[in-house]
Write a structure and sequence with these properties.
Length: 148
Amino acid sequence: MGASLSSLLIVALVILIMVEIIGRSFFDYSTMLADEYSGYFYLALVFLGLAYTFDEEGHIRISIVTGRLRGSIKRWVDIFAGVMALSILLFALYYSWDFMIESHEMGMLSEGVSETPLYLTQIPLVSGLALFAFSMFIFVLRKATDDR
């Protein structure tokens, strides 16, 4: 789900930038939103793509030690690392959620021309962290129940 949304956001980002470039170059026209919204799209596509990237083993892993481990020791190191990562993700998720709710309650708006409600721009951050935490939970669960 997150990867699909990230893919769509990359396309939307490219279209937005192309419209801005063509508009400025040939028609002396600016959307006035391209800079602001390209940042929002980029933030969203990064966070929504975290879980998929993890599932595809695309995140940087320090395997200089774990690459030499075998069997149950490697499994326990993976479980420990997964639990630590899940703890950090849940911490970040909690405070991101809290920040999003606070932004909504205070009616915070962007300082750009669009005056976009900031909580809307924070939804992909919270969603991406939630997907990543769920993916990490599944990883830990699989490692913990692996019989090898």
